[in-house]
Specification:
Length: about 260
């Protein structure tokens, strides 16, 4: 089976040609459902993501070796070579971030792929607003920005998707992890809601309370599960700020009291 190399339309390309002109694709999509692959391809191209499509795990491995895409998205269940095995082989042979997409029928395979090293498990059919921020985060791991971050008593490992507060592991879903990372890359800086939603959802207009809910969850996990000194403060009319007191620098200060905790 020959992989489909689809050149993006002129409006989606940074220059002449497409993913089959010898240039490195931004994304290799291994999706067994051809109709679903075509729908996803159109949306990725519209987001200026140069995409190469194939339809099984063996094709994916061949194209990854030949074309060296910047990221890989595997649809599960994936025929010939399953998503978990493809992810395992990629981890051994290539430094490229892998995402895996699945519905209910591919959940077990996708979970195994995450255990093998995939950086995220996303919904299938694919939602571009969910995947684009994850791709950007994965691409950033290759440009030196994957160095561990430490702010106050919080430590975050972008490459391994780990968060620790005073040595205790904190479990965050992917979107909450990316939100915390964004704050930690900009400590003590007010970040507008528009900037956050654009960076994490690829739009400045997600569902009305989506950002508020995610900020609240991260804030509560830092306080209730991590006993962190750091807070995510809501700055009325402006946005949010990750704030760590001076005693937090060495991870020795007390966690904020319930009275101090922001409510929105």
């Amino acid at each position: 089976m020959t992989p489909e190399a689809h050149p993006p339309p002129a409006s989606a390309a940074s220059g002449p040609g497409g993913p089959d002109d010898g240039r490195t694709p931004d994304l290799l999509l291994a999706e067994p459902d051809e109709e679903l692959a075509a729908q996803a391809l159109a949306r990725f191209e519209g987001a200026r993501i140069r995409t190469l499509v194939c339809h099984d795990g063996a094709e994916a491995l061949l194209q990854i070796g030949a074309r060296r895409p910047r990221a890989v998205l595997l649809g599960a269940p994936l025929p010939v070579v399953d998503a978990a095995r493809v992810t395992e082989l990629i981890a051994r042979l290539h430094s490229v971030p892998v995402l895996v997409g699945a519905g209910a029928e591919g959940a077990a395979e996708a979970t195994a792929a995450v255990a093998a090293g995939a950086i995220a498990f996303v919904a299938r059919p694919y939602r571009i607003e969910e995947i684009t921020p994850l791709l950007r985060a994965g691409w950033n791991q290759g440009d030196g920005s994957a160095a561990p971050l430490k702010v106050g008593d919080i430590e975050l490992d972008p490459a391994g998707f780990h968060v620790y507060v005073r040595g205790r592991s904190l479990q965050l879903p992917v979107r909450e992890f990316l939100l915390l990372r964004y704050f930690m890359e900009r400590p003590n800086k007010v970040i507008t809601r528009a900037e956050l939603t654009q960076a994490l959802w690829g739009t400045q207009a997600p569902e009305s309370n989506t950002l508020t809910v995610h900020v609240r969850r991260v804030r509560h996990k830092l306080k209730d599960e991590g006993d962190s000194c750091c807070t995510i403060d809501a700055i009325r009319g402006m946005g949010y700020r990750l704030e760590c007191g001076s005693s937090c620098a060495n991870g020795t200060g007390p966690a904020p009291s319930a009275a101090q905790a922001p409510t929105d």
